[in-house]
Structures are given as structure tokens and as C-alpha cells.
Amino acid sequence: MDSTITGFRSAEPPLTETMFCAWFGSAVPGDRIVYHRGFLAVDASPLTSTVPDAERRALLRIAERALQLAEDGLVHLVQRRMGESDFTYLAIARPRARSRAGTLASVLAAAKPTSIAA
Amino acid sequence: MPFTPTRAEIHALQRSADRVALRIIRTCRIPRHEQEDLRQDLLTDLFARLKGFDPARGDLGAFAAACIDHRAIRLTERILRGRATMAPISLDDPQPGGEGLTIGDSIAEADGYAAWLGQPTEAFAAVERRIDLDRALGTLPAETLPLCAELTERSPHELAKASPTSRATLYRHLRELRLRLLVAGIPAAA
Q: SS3 for B94?
């Protein structure tokens, strides 16, 4: 008997960009989080996605944030193949780089602008 | 029966207390608006002692002058003693080696008014917060630092009014900044 229930939505609240950032803020190196399950490229595209537009936009924001953190060297992004067009997308926290030299107050004093750049 | 001064005598006592209060102000070099408080202090002390005044043994003016002078000496000593325990310093004084920063810059807003008066604050929490912020600074892109610096002095609303940037763009930058700080482990304060 097939016990898979398709289209069943999880009772857990969906991951948001803020939750993803908060997770990383408290993560230690090696911690991991699943930020999507499915086929990200398909699910995030307006042409091919089957999820509601608001959810698709939220997913896109999470994916872009994950990519940004990866480019900053803060997380590894990996995928685990679960089946045909079905992947688990994982973000794994990396050790953080040391802070740049200077105290908050002195750096902010040096950065004080004449006007805000657009 | 306790002695009760007449209205004219009370006026005379007030004038005496006024003169002595002014003398304390000049001696201790304290602000002129303290005169009323000092006068009140002198008169309260004097009135508490009036029950011991016997008109048959002397003049009210002499009795009052002695009481007020003694109280004034004690007040002056107290003010000077209190001042000796503190090093007068201005919030606008430069911090030693602070690269243009003032003493006021080293006091966190969260510490409140008590911190300005040397009252104890959550020193360990403040140090940890500063270390966290120093570390978070390393994760912020350099282009966001001018915005951070502006936000230390002005509210987003004031920034939006003063800046040629549109309000929507400014708040988009703010949202991005909040998320960057969240990534660095700094949750929003409110």
C-alpha cells in the first residue's frame, strides 16, 4: 500500500528569510538547515513554479540569501538527491572570519558620510 | 508654649536665609538656581529649632543667625565633600586616544541617564554587546557603514526627509541591514 500522501502541507511554519538569518546568527560551524525541499530552479521560477506566488517569492528570497551567505564564505550550500526532480537543499554553517580591525565607534566615526548613497 | 513668629519676623528670617543661601552658592560655585533649595533647607532646619527659642533669653535675629550659620557650614562642607569624591568631567571631553570621540560616545543609550551620573550599569552585558557589534561590523559590506553611522545620530524618518534617496529605498536598505545584523547574531532591539 502506498502510504505517501501527496499535497499534504507540513504543520511547521514555512521557513522565512528572517528565520533563515536568525538560524545562521546563532549557528555554530557544522550546523545545518534544510531551506528547501523540491527542485529549487523549477519552484522558484515564475514560469514553472506550481506554488502560490507569495510562497515562490519567499522561497526566492531565502535562496538568494543562502547564495549571498555562501558567496561571503559563511555557509556551504549542498544538495541531497531524494528522487527524480526532488532534492533537499542544505545550508551548512562555516567558521566565521575574524572581524576587521577597529572598534565599532571608530569605524562608524570614520564612515560618517556627508549624505547617504542611494 | 512654643514660640510662634509673626509674619514680619518670618519675612525677616526668609531674607536672612536668602542671603546665606547666596553666600553658599558663591562659596561652593554652584548654579544660581540652587538658591531656593538651599534657602528651603536652611529655613526647614531653623523652624525645627524654633521650639527651643526663648524670647526672654535673647533676640530672634541672633538665634536665627546662629542656626542658619551652623546649618550653612554643614551644607557647605557636605557640598565640598561630595565634590571632592568626583572628578568633574564633561560629556564633550575627548576620550584619550579616541580619535575624535568624546566621553559621551562611550555611554550606551541603553544605560540610561544613571550612567551619565556614574551609577552602575550592566557593564558585562554592555561589553559583550560591544564585542558582538565589533564582530558584526566585520560582516557588513563597506557600503552600509555610512548608513549605520547616520543611524547613530538620526532616526530613519529624519534620514528619509534629509536624504535625496526615496523613502522606499531607504527602508529597503534598512531591512537588508537588519537581516545582515541578524546573520551576524545581532537580533533587533525592538
A: strand
